[in-house]
Amino acid sequence: MLIKRTNQHSLRHGSVAESLAGQAGGLDRRSFLRKSGLAGGALAALGTLPVGGVRKAEAAMAGPLTAGATVRKSICTHCSVGCTVTAEVLNGVWIGQEPSWDSPINRGSHCAKGASVRELVHSERRLRYPMKLVGGQWTRVSWDTAINEIGDRLQAVREKSGPDSVYWLGSAKMTNEGAYLFRKLGAFWGTNNTDHQARICHSTTVTGVANTWGYGAMTNSYNDIRNAKTQMILGGNPAEAHPVSLQHLLEGKELQKANFIVIDPRLTRTAAHATEYVRMRPGTDIPVLYGMMWHILQNGWEDKEFIRQRVYGFDDLRKEVEKWNPEEVERVTGIPGEQLKRVAKMFATEKPATLIWAMGQTQKTVGTANVRASCILLLMTGNVGGAGMGANIFRGHDNVQGATDVGLDIVTLPFYYGLAEGAWKHWSRVWEVDYDFLKSRFDSKQIMETPGIPLTRWFEAVTLPKDQVAQKDNVRAVFVQGHASNSITRIPESLNGLKALELLVIADPHPTTWASLAVEAGRKDGVYILPVATQFECKGSRVASNRSLQWGEQIVKPVFESKDDLEIIYLMAKKLGLADQMFKKIKVENNLPEAEDVLREMNRGSWSTGYCGQSPERLKAHMKNQAKFDMLTMRAPKDDPEVGGDYYGLPWPCWGSPEVKHPGTPLLYNTNLHVMDGGGTFRPRFGVEREEKLPDGTTRKVSLLADGSYSLGSGIQDGYPEFTLASLKKLGWDTELTEAEMAVINKVNPATPDAVSWALDLSGGIQRVALAHGCVPYGNGKARMHAFGLPDPIPVHREPIYTPRADLVAKYPTLPDAKQFRMPNIGFSVQKAAVEKGIAKQFPLILSSGRLVEYEGGGEETRTNPWLAELQQDMFIEINPADAAERGVKDGGWVWVTGAENNSRARMKALVTERVGKGVAWMPFHFGGWFAGKDLRGNYPKGTDPIVLGESANTITTYGYDPATNMQEAKVTLCQIAAA
Amino acid sequence: MARMKFLCDADRCIECNACVTACKNEHEVPWGINRRRVVTIADGKPGERSVSMACMHCTDAPCAAVCPVNCFYTTADGVVLHSKDLCIGCGYCFYACPFGAPQYPKVGNFGSRGKMDKCTYCAGGPEADGSKEEYEKYGANRLAEGKLPLCAEMCSTKSLLAGDGEIIAQIYKERVLKRGYGSGAWGWKTAYRETIES
Fold first, then answer.
1. What is the CATH number of the domain that holds B128?
2. Nearest CB to A65 within list B15, B25, B132
3. B135 vs A34: CB contact, 8 Å cut-off?
């Protein structure tokens, strides 16, 4: 029996039946919202509906029930594909969804989540009003009271422990405008402890990929995968995580008769459609990739000319690859040499080939090195910078790319400017505030320029001895707006953090496991819950994985007492006395900052990433003219009056000011096109030359600029560094700058205007002149196979902290303990202790985790949606039939899963399946609301508990942090399973 | 007049359940009733395939043949509908249906069944097209608005096709020809007594 597919009989299963009491059987409460829309039903009581409107609708009863409805478009909030949601709204009620035929991305389609988003807005289980925990009871409070009390308590923490003792945890669910303002609030508050979901999904991608060729984002697009002759997916299951992308993948596979290779420990729903499925041991991505490269180099399949012109560090890499002969690869990964040779040949010779990945590569202690090795494979085979190629990195949330870009992060200000003094000065110019004012908000200039604490370790920042946290004091308060707590590993230890906090503020449409676990941790007070509107109740821009910006309209007004993210940020800023400075250049009406104005401010400061050309007007024109964009090229006809020649969503970089009319860049680093048609080069971000030590002790200087390769129509037909006023002068192009532009440049740096670069020039003049000469503003460099500066400049295989192959740890140990991000990372000691204690004998099964199509992230929102919840009613663990037989575990039976740390245990159902290999178990990570076998339904404020609850995978997960980003280890640990 | 049919291309279906929730959304189908579902065979094994299933709106529908109260009728578009006013919830149609389409809300003790509910091809029921009464009993009537069933319109991979039988058969045929493989139009022989040759 398939426990996934339980339908009616599961209704009898305790918790679900209970939670649906009064609703199951027959048609439910407000069975037909469409009728409600007409009769002014469920939501009319909120006073949002004009009575007159209701009467009018009653009178117009003749035709279809949707007659007279307004159509509004927004973007689905459940993954990064960026599907347009088309809503029909009548009298302020969202009464229906229609296919979005015009979107070149989803072309009418949705997955289970997208096809049911309407319910998220109307859910009766949404938070209705602010609440606080008083003596262990959830008590209603007004917004005024909540904001005032929270503000006072934050100030108290600040006075006692300094600004870094407040942790600002934002969200990839926010629009660009929300995420940007949240980061800005952190900056004005005076801390870099501002993070969001990118930390736990693709922080390693951003760091690893940017360190390779300039920007850490998907190089091509979902649509462009249709051009590939070989699609290889390593560390992703898009059939469940990004279902609509499969439209492009499968049609591409069919039309091109393409190879469709899936390398994964599980035979996933994606693998079911593969032409070649390769099963690997979890945590051995680098040996798999090097194993492929070994065959490529042995057979001379590498792209020698591409490497010569556009790649740095090939010889260093070759030395590492040579260690990975087929025997060693098979010993470590379990993949037979012949199969890997076949795959390597396809990838290198049946071009164009693309490499697709998601969290299978990134959520690991070696995440950064994994994605680096993936980029290296692409570089070696010349598969970057053209159609059908590239690193197609599938991001997770609908706006995780955008939230990353706008700098809701611990290591940078918006748009990857970093945290150095120059970056702060740039943003203080954009914000028109005094740099010294910003500096005064921080504990010190030094901490102002120091990366903050990663969200993966927030609880350690609360509970570690004070001297181990390199800031004035421990974290004392957490303000979380739109982030699940059950998505973070080591839940048993996070309970200690929840207990020790002085203040916890949860701003979300749902109470989330922050609330239920805080109560479980024993809290009686000091917790506030603020109801936030869903993104369908807000307007603003979102960035899909392919870097396209899409403007979503407000479909309906925020329901109940919930508020737009932007309004909450404004109210907090106002209470903290920061609003006047923070919103100096942004229009605010009724406490709601205008999203368009926020985007305009971003446009004025985001030269480094090319977010400068995407004005709200242009984005709105794109949504209005969706049908005009070609599905394959994503480009509109050049003669169109509104969007002529643009690529859909103006995928960044979209250079220059909006007036320059840059069309956006659909494929990064594509030298086959003129830069004004979206062409580009690799970004020289790490200097123009490097001194290398030779074996004989001498040194030589090696250029990091491209060699004889340049984008079409380039005024400089070779590599070149980034543009500055000085370099324009050298080329004699500075005379093309207007007087007004020169005035701005002189204002940016009055002392040495020559040093003003393309990224700091607020006039956009330097970019404009470079573009006019067919040059890319950031320069034309080589991609790095050898990424000096990273912990492992050349990727090195390192066994997971908790590995079943203790025999391999001596040869492939994790990196030594070190201080990172204000905290100690003791991975090496933990790994050593695990080997010495023989943990792998007590916990012999590898535990991995992943996504289900019906749910997203921590899952509280989607588990609250009955249309989805009905399809997945139980938390489960997949176990191979052989492992199940050894343990007497039956399919569908209850089991206890125990973990390698904290005596952790979790109770769930077993799904006995060959989907996982012997020795491997797998859990979905969307469940929450149970802890160690205990149902926490009673811990939620009454009526707001999700329909389906279950144990969280992260109750069992363990220590392990990527040294470059402190990404958590969510994909490989150890466990034991026993029948319950 | 068009003869409306469903066709699920099992080589495209990824079991994403969009069809299931689109149906729930469009008709506000309550918990426990599934007008459409996705069935996976060889789950987790090589050769795993999924198919989206609902009422296929058969030619000479077996449900109609066994109904003791004659509540079924076939529209000019070939869509098999029924009258909930006539239905007595006997359950015969459930046994006759080769696709497991009929569903029954549980209405009382001792397993007593309510009136049968099933996929309407988004074509409502006997009441006036687009009326409130029709919507309450059968859900939306998209066909009357010139739209196709939402499950197929929203299918993530364009695996589930709905529309005139000849047109969707042609689309499928071309697809199979181009890619070189196809596992046949699933259920067509049973429902429509025909197969698609390619």
1. 3.30.70.20
2. B132
3. yes
